[in-house]
Design goal:
The protein is mostly helical. The chain has a domain at 44-138: Cytochrome Bc1 Complex, Chain D, domain 2, CATH 1.10.760.10. It is built from 6 helices and no strands. It starts with a helix and ends in an 8-residue tail after the last helix. Bound molecules: heme C. Residues 58-59, 61-63, 73-75, 77, 80, 82-83, 94-95, 99, 101, 104-108, 111-112, 126 line the site of heme C.
């Protein structure tokens, strides 16, 4: 019985992750990097699921629930040359600071949320989620 609950829980977690990544054939298995792939810190599925939930709560209003951006608002975050060019740490600093766009629409610091509603660790989860999109990988 307990066993059964675990496998149902695992299956639904997997379903959520697959849905989150819009997983198609292009999704390479991140768990089995090639021998010469750069070593990156392990990212857990929990982190990605949390990241997606935080994204929906704090970023989706401007970047869209599918993260593909909105007209005259948040940019596409599924295939961004900028995201691609930044390390995770640089992206964290970017989201904390935002980007002032004179005469245009700015990216507010921390998406406009106070730190107790959007912590650095929660932003790290969002970054892990965004990295799942192949267009955002260096
Ligand atoms: C109030 C609206 C708003 C919210 C909320 C918001 N953003 Fe943005 N974001 C923007 C806008 C507008 C831009 C584009 C700024 C520009 O034109 O350079 C942007 C740009 C970005 C970029 C740079 C993309 C690129 O290709 O240059 C990243 C990364 C980003 N946002 C991440 C996030 C994350 C992560 C969150 C949630 C924690 C978030 N944003 C929440 C409005 C928002």
């Amino acid at each position: 019985m307990r066993q059964q609950i675990y496998s149902i829980a695992t299956a639904s977690l997997l379903a959520v992750v697959l849905a989150a990544t819009g997983c198609g054939g292009e999704e390479k298995d991140a768990a089995t990097p090639k021998a010469d792939a750069p070593v990156t810190p392990a990212v857990s599925q929990t982190q990605i699921v949390n990241g997606r939930n935080t994204f929906l709560r704090t970023c989706a209003a401007c970047h869209g629930t599918d993260a593909k951006g909105m007209p005259n608002n948040g940019k596409d975050l599924t295939a961004s040359e900028f995201v691609k060019s930044q390390t995770d740490e640089q992206l964290l600093q970017y989201v904390i600071q935002g980007r002032e766009v004179p005469g245009g629409v700015s990216m507010p610091p921390r998406g406009g949320f106070p730190e107790d509603q959007l912590t650095d660790d929660q932003i790290r989860d969002v970054i892990a989620y965004l990295r799942r999109f192949p267009g955002n990988r260096p």
